[in-house]
């Protein structure tokens, strides 16, 4: 039996590598966006779209990939995702203009959207009930490993670009650092495709297709004969109850029987994004630059974000099948509310005043006297300070020197900002990060699972797109403090919803949960 458990774990870990690619592909842009904005002369909204465009396509891919996997299989669609990731990485790294850069980034969104929902779906369909939470969380673990790798890779490439080594210059790392940040993703994409060669088809998918002999053979790789027979019997009963529908209409999800689980899925899906997690993951260096620590330090602190995310995701995996889904959600969302509110307070209490000696210490390729009207003048907020820089230097030069000028003029407690962001990430990683996808894989009955996860995943990605798209504009228009206060307010509302509506799902088979949660 131990060998079967090891095989189940190995297969789950392999499939979950799609999460690593998703995390890397999504977060590598955090180090790229500043350089792309300068190279392609982008406005704040254009920068926001270059970051969020991947999520926009991911949202559409989620809507299609679930039903597609119901038709041709989870494994085959995941293989196609690996190919798409590789093409996107190479194309976006070599893109000569903003239009092609967008096209290849959006292509990567197909892989992100599909792998984000299919990997946990597949793992849930092979995992025993007592270990399902931990195994499905492999996907979230790999997502955060991918995020951490992206932060570390970005920092390493920026550091190499500052070195005098001849090989760095010959490879173009010094002049084209952001292209190397994007291109390195090709390696894990190829490895993922090769790893999927050893993954069997989903036994539940085979059973739905009427291929019961094949389903039995696959189940025997994961279970004892008795457990395999019991699992297959439950799946057959579920199929018999619902009928073998080859195509499930979207309207099926909105029938009264599914209203409760659909409401939970939609609210949790929205809450995961509307509290601002992808603003932190996709713009981490930019956020840290707003606290005045400078560009190099901002990349280092972004690594701390990735490591915190990783450590607390591992902690969540160890607790999710012991403590349960609901307690983790309450602890984490409560923490998100607290840390976001304090983060907003930290930025709200900052003041800005550019002194002449600090201005003289900045290396600039433009006439510093243009900034003389700002010297000695106190600004009450980041928006007024940055608007003054734009007015005196113009948009292009303002973006080029904004980080140095904020560092020179801000008076803030950067340690408070760092601690709050790390606390926010820790709270997310122990709750909404892994628990949401576990809940998605458990809430919905088999006959609509692919469609339902696609729909709630679409909503989740749609909200994520909006958050990412407007974030640079929010920083420039309403400021850091107001932005983080808004995220905190949504977390407070989410906490009370979880307390009153979300049930516990640990330790029950998917068929048992269907009988409990879906009204007959």
The CATH superfamily of the largest domain is MFS general substrate transporter like domains
> What is the typical, i.e. mean, pLDDT?
82
Which structural category do the helix and sheet elements fall into?
A: mainly alpha
Number of domains: 2
**How many helices does DSSP assign?**
25
Q: How would a crystallographer describe the biggest sheet?
A: 3 strands, antiparallel
Spatial ordering of strands, largest sheet: 2-1-3
Radius of gyration: 24 Å
Instruction: Identify low-pLDDT runs.
Output: none
N-to-C order of helices and strands: HHHHHHHHHHHHHHHHHEHEHHEHHHHH
**What is the percent of helical residues?**
over 70%
The first-level CATH class of the largest domain is given as: Mainly Alpha
Name the assembly state.
single chain
Q: Per DSSP, what share of the residues sits in E-state strands of 2 or more residues?
A: under 5%
- Could you tell me the CATH topology label of the largest domain: Growth Hormone, Chain: A
Shape: globular
Distance between the termini: 36 Å
Q: Kindly state the number of beta strands.
A: 3
């Amino acid at each position: 039996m131990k060998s079967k458990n090891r095989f189940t774990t190995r297969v789950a870990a392999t499939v979950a590598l799609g999460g690593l690619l998703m995390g890397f592909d999504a977060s590598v842009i955090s180090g790229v966006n500043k350089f792309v904005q300068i190279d392609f002369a982008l406005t704040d909204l254009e920068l926001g779209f270059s970051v969020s465009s991947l999520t926009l396509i991911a949202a559409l891919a989620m809507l299609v990939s679930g039903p597609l996997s119901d038709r041709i299989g989870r494994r085959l669609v995941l293989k196609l995702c690996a190919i798409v990731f590789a093409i996107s990485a190479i194309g976006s790294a070599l893109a000569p203009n903003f239009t092609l850069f967008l096209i290849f980034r959006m292509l990567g969104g197909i892989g992100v959207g599909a792998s984000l929902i299919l990997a946990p779906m597949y793992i849930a369909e092979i995992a025993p009930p007592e270990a399902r939470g931990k195994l499905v969380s492999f996907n979230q673990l790999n997502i955060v490993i991918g995020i951490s790798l992206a932060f570390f890779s970005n920092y390493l490439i920026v550091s190499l670009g500052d070195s005098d080594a001849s090989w760095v210059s010959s490879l173009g790392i010094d002049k084209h650092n952001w292209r190397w940040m994007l291109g390195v993703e090709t390696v894990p994409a190829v490895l993922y495709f090769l790893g999927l060669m050893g993954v069997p088809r989903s036994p539940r998918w085979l059973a739905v297709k009427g291929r019961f002999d094949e389903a039995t053979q696959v189940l025997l790789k994961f279970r004892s004969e008795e457990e395999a027979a019991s699992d297959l019997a439950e799946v057959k009963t579920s199929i018999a109850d619902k009928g073998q529908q080859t195509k499930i209409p979207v309207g099926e999800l909105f029938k009264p029987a599914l209203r409760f689980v659909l409401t939970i899925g939609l609210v949790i899906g929205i809450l995961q994004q509307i509290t601002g997690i992808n603003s932190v993951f996709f713009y981490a260096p930019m956020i840290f630059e707003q606290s005045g620590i400078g560009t190099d330090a901002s990349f280092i602190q972004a690594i701390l974000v990735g490591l915190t995310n990783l450590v607390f995701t591992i902690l969540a995996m160890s607790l999710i099948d012991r403590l349960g889904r609901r307690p983790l959600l309450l602890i984490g969302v409560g923490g998100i509310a607290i840390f976001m509110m304090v983060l907003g307070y930290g930025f709200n209490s900052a003041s800005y005043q550019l002194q002449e000696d600090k201005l003289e210490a900045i290396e600039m390729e433009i006439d510093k006297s243009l900034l003389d009207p700002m010297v000695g003048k106190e600004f009450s907020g980041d928006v007024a300070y940055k608007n003054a820089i734009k007015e005196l230097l113009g948009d292009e030069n303002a973006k080029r020197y904004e980080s140095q000028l904020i560092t020179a003029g801000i008076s803030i407690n950067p340690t408070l900002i760092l601690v709050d962001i790390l606390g926010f990430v820790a709270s997310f990683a122990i709750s909404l990060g892994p628990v949401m996808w576990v809940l998605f894989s458990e809430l919905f009955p088999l006959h609509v699972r692919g469609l339902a996860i696609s729909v709630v995943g679409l909503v989740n990605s749609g909200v994520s797109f909006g958050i990412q798209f407007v974030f640079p504009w929010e920083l420039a228009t309403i400021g850091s403090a107001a932005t983080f206060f808004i995220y905190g307010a949504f977390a407070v509302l989410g906490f009370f919803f979880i307390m009153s509506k979300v049930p516990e799902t640990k330790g029950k088979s998917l068929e048992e949960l269907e009988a409990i949660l879906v009204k007959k």
